[in-house]
Amino acid sequence: MLGKESALELLEQAVRHSSADSVEVVIEGDDRQVTRFARSAIDQNMAESNVRVTVRAVLGKRLGYASTNRLGARGILDAVERAEHLASLQAEDPAFVSLPGPAPLPQVRTFHPATAASSPEQRAEAVASIVRALGSLGCEASGWLSAECSELAVGNSLGIRAYAPLTTARLVLVASSGDASGYAQWEGRDISVLDPSQVAARAGRKCTDSRNPIGLGPGSYPVILEPAAVADMLQTLAYVGLSATSLQEQRSFLSGRLGEQVASPLVSLWDDGEDERTLAMPFDFEGVPKQKVTFIEAGVARGVVYDSYTAHKEGRSSTGHALPPPNVWGPYPLNLVMAAGDTSEQAMIEGMERGLLVTSFHYSNVLQPKETSWTGMTRHGTFLIEGGRISRPIRNLRFTDTILGALNRLEAVGDRQELIGGMLCPALAISSFTFTS
Amino acid sequence: MEDLASFILDRALRAGASYADVRILDRRQESVNVRCGRVEALQSTTEAGVGVRVIADGAWGFAASADLSRQALTQTAELAVRIAKASAQVNPQPVVLEPAPPVRDQWQSQFRTNPFDVPVEDKIDLLLDADRVLREREKITVSGGSVSCREEQKVFASTEGSLLQQHKLETGGQVFATAVEGPEAQERSYPSSMEGLHAAAGYELIEEMDLMGGAQTIGREAVELLSAPRCPQGEMPVIIDASHMALQIHESCGHPIELDRVFGSEASYAGTSFLTPDKLGSYRYGSDLVSIYADATVPGALGTFGYDDEGTPAQRSPIVVNGVFQGYLSSREMAARLGRRSSGAMRAEGWNRLPLIRMTNINLEPGDWSLEEMIKDTRHGLYLQTTRSWSIDDQRLNFQFGCQVGWMIENGAITHMVSNANYQGVTPQFWATCDAIGHRDEWRMWGVVNCAKGQPVQLMHVGHGVAPTRFSRVRVGM
């Protein structure tokens, strides 16, 4: 970690040194500590400290990138010169217009001192308390507890100077006992809000409820997807089609469908970097302020996210969704929010005559992006619901379905949202979902 | 470097470590990515850093820093020991390492043409030419390719007296295309999908790839897939091409033989394994034809090295012999739990990551069939090429894999193309139906660069030696 003053000075130094037509410098500092545990013992426990500087040099319509983690003056200047040299060898990109210019940045709280101060001893004590809690239930504990203190600084020769210190903490927990397992997690910017005992209680309950599962044949069943399973679904949706790149290349499921009803009226989905319930962030990796972008509003397709390159192609402004340079994926939403509904998860269960409750998915993958078809396994707690109550745990099943299909068959949206993978997700009740093995 | 390593190890011992090792890494990379007629990314990267791994109070600690000043290295060594002592609070079984003699040696990978010496303009021209070939076809909305290379110098030293220096050079590339019409989008890649084909080789790999020829083929096939009938549903013999066999063996054999995973270290992320130690030496993994070895000594392969990241020499070890499960990928700690020797598979993505048990080169021994003979010998079946999607459960049993293109085989000959081809299986039942494996001329190494494991996630470069392989009864068309 450099700190704001040193990071901005480094930016100035690199920008001043460049003789390119324009130049952009991105500094990513990272002090990360991860305490990993398995079968109720800490087995991997690490810390890393790194700062990476990436330079984008622009010569007319030719761009070159260079990065380094050698922070001495010569190291940074060398990166600037390498980027300029590569730009000079480049072919012109007719669609490139300009680096973005400066704009006022929103005030968003991204840093919490408690996370930055998290120590190995504190994390070990938290893990010890989890191990004790799950041990009393006859379960073993596996997972990780991380505390990350990072910084992002972006500057360019057009005047952008953006700096944000960031903290992120995460506890992922799997309780296991024989062939049963249960999952719970927590993440946020402020580790002082984390209550490990509450996460342990949730994972432990899932695990003990999962003992002695029965097999259930493939078929289509009504399902309740808990927030972790919904997070998997939304992440896949973002990957296959919520960016301008996927739309411009006609491979998005939204291609030609903006303004159309693409999902149940119960579905509203947006990205909002200023929402402090997510891992809020005031600007993107080009230093552009993050705008709220609505993808689906009451089931109607509304838009996608842009970085400066994809925005210029359409003569519009970036929405502030560039990824770290050089970015071969296009813009991406990192602060997804799915609107909560008005149905509690308990009410969903009570309203289901026969169906399945899915805690989380595992190793899902896209089959046909434009169809949003995808497959994966259920994991860490799959249950049969009969007569409005959970009747039995069942063995994991493979699902194969389409996301848009599932979002069109929605019956209810949960009234509670959970932050998972940076996304704020409710539970969903779906009238029919296909399991293939 | 030797002085630096000694300094760090000394600081770790002074702080209370009973064992310490250090890796000092210096790496440079260059990549050219072309997409839709433009050079999307042209990048040069350099990085260096130190990772210190220690045992203190019987538990592991690890700390890494990009700052190579003596002051920062002292703090890093002390932090590693402090972390280990914190780990010891929740570590009922002290770490025991299988004894190993100290080794002092040097190793380097072989290559003919240093890819960093090839002008960047030549790489750009090659990829733009291939991209132009792809974009000549209507309905191709995404086209592109990449060439990348990586060079690393690594020093390993331990308090047991080992001192190893390794130099490795890697090169890789690919071309790809997506054709779109209405709701249909079809992808093709050459010579393989994901990040392409990589090897511990020089630029000769790219020259031998024939990316231009590959672009002609995949451009045509991507468009043809748009109007091809969908893969039929049912159960039939399936011949899998070598590039996708690399994924099949990676997911259904490579991961479940990682011994740390077997002992539960990935239970909260990637999962565990159905290949539990009680199955060693007796479990029927596949048909008699199936013999699989982990081999970190194959010249030019991506998962080849001189020594792993805890100083164990590279080796070739049996995993499955004539269909029977025989061995694991292991480390000094995990092997000791089984009373075995380390198979030399501890690898870290970089200086800032802990070594974990990772694949090296997991190779299916060649059989005695040509691809042509396999097709001729198939009355009604499918020939599948190039990975498109992959999903497997947390025990590595229930899988569903998709391929970019399928070809129907009727009465010993390919009749037509099918799209959206995929298949499902359960690992040992699937491998039990293996009834033909390509011979040595059909066999080659496939290097992949995106094998994920660990938290923080580490992407490892691994290899798979495979040939086209036939499975007699496979459920297809999900």
Describe the secondary-structure layout:
The complex is a heterodimer of chains A (437) and B (478).
Chain A: H1 4-17, E1 22-38, E2 41-59, E3 62-68, H2 73-89, H3 113-116, H4 120-135, E4 140-156, E5 161-177, E6 180-188, H5 196-209, E7 219-225, H6 227-241, H7 244-248, E8 269-271, E9 293-297, E10 300-301, H8 308-313, E11 336-338, H9 345-350, E12 354-368, E13 373-386, E14 389-393, E15 398-402, H10 403-408, E16 410-420, E17 423-435
Parallel strand pairs in A: 7-12
Antiparallel strand pairs in A: 1-2, 1-4, 2-3, 4-5, 5-6, 7-17, 8-9, 8-11, 9-10, 12-13, 13-14, 13-15, 16-17
Chain B: H1 2-15, E1 19-35, E2 38-56, E3 59-65, H2 70-87, E4 104-108, H3 120-135, E5 140-158, E6 163-181, E7 184-190, E8 197-199, H4 204-209, H5 211-227, E9 234-240, H6 242-254, H7 259-262, E10 292-295, E11 316-321, E12 324-325, H8 332-337, E13 346-347, E14 356-357, E15 362-364, H9 371-376, E16 380-392, E17 398-410, E18 413-418, E19 421-426, H10 427-432, E20 434-437, E21 444-453, E22 458-466, E23 469-476
Parallel strand pairs in B: 4-6, 9-16
Antiparallel strand pairs in B: 1-2, 1-5, 2-3, 5-6, 6-7, 6-8, 9-23, 10-11, 10-15, 11-12, 13-14, 16-17, 17-18, 17-19, 19-23, 20-23, 21-22
